[in-house]
Amino acid sequence: MPCYLSTGCFKTTDLDEIIASSLEHGFNLELSSALPFSPSSLETVCNAGKQLDFLVHNYFPPPAIPFVLNLASTDPVIHQQSVKLCKNAIDLCARLGAPFYSVHSGFALNLRPEDLGNHAAQRQLAERQSVPRGKAYEIYVKTINNLALYAIDSDVDLLVENNVVSVENISDDGTFPLLLADIDELARFFLDINNPAVGLLLDTGHANVSAATFGIPPELYIEELRPFIRCLHLSDNNGQCDTNSPIRSESWFAPYLKELAAIPMVIEVNKLLQDEMLQQVKLIEELKV
């Protein structure tokens, strides 16, 4: 199974430059967040699809007016925008022949784009807002079920990514608004969905931070959720913050890559030089053997 590079690995957000570099070095690409809106992005990608293997992840194609994608949102406008973006992404997967579309898990908050990555702001919002977590979970499960039916019609599977919870996300009462971050809720979700076309994109960086927050070994995310894992996002960190740091042969997940070698793996390390990208791809290929 090929290894992919997230578009976040590149030092540029210019999609033409990213694709040109990928063609030059033989990289497979995951189209992901942090790319600016461009009216020509779909045409650019579909033209390159004849030469590159693509995956599509979360906030792509990006909309002209930014918003926070949240499939668990209680705001009807945000929820409708989120579903529309995901359907557009599924349609793109079908055009590209990509096997699945992967999307972030939802959250019991109605965020603005500037709140993303700001744990302090998210905690303050969680304390002020009265979005019931159970209600957000119910909306998320129903929405994923509906999107899965839409994706199946296009012969595309649907993967959800585990959320990341750091100490800063935990309120004084011990609650947190991010869905599908802990192992028990992830397992419950797949039982509630009960659809073989829906799987887990396990983000190793998210799992490492969440595990440290919950006081458990990160390895449990692989050992207990293995039946649901269909793709990996690979990056490292110190367990305190999701820094998307380079993968090492000593990374906590490295011993599992051989047994998971049959599923796609996406390197999600931020802003690498070309030589560093090649080194990361080589390392993953060596760890898979």
Flag low-confidence runs.
Answer: none
Structural class: alpha/beta
Largest sheet: 8 strands, parallel, barrel
**CATH topology category name:** TIM Barrel
Indicate the proportion of strand residues: 5-15%
Structural domains: how many? 1
The global form is: globular
Number of helices: 9
What distinguishing features does this structure have?
289 residues; alpha/beta; TIM Barrel; 8 strands
Describe what you observe in this structure.
The chain is an alpha/beta fold. It has a single domain (3-288), classed as Divalent-metal-dependent TIM barrel enzymes (TIM Barrel, Alpha-Beta Barrel), CATH 3.20.20.150. The protein has helices at 15-25, 41-48, 76-96, 119-128, 133-153, 183-193, 204-214, 219-225, 274-288, and strands at 3-6, 28-31, 54-57, 100-104, 157-161, 198-203, 229-234, 265-267. β5 (157-161), α6 (183-193) and β6 (198-203) form a beta-alpha-beta unit. α3 (76-96) packs parallel to α5. The longest helix has 21 residues, at 76-96.
Give the structure's gist in a few sentences.
This protein is α/β, with parallel strands linked by helices and about 290 residues long. The chain has helices at about 15-25, 40-50, 75-95, 120-130, 135-155, 185-195, 205-215, 220-225, 275-289, and strands at about 5, 30, 55, 100-105, 155-160, 200-205, 230-235, 265. It has one domain (about 5-289): Alpha-Beta Barrel (TIM Barrel).
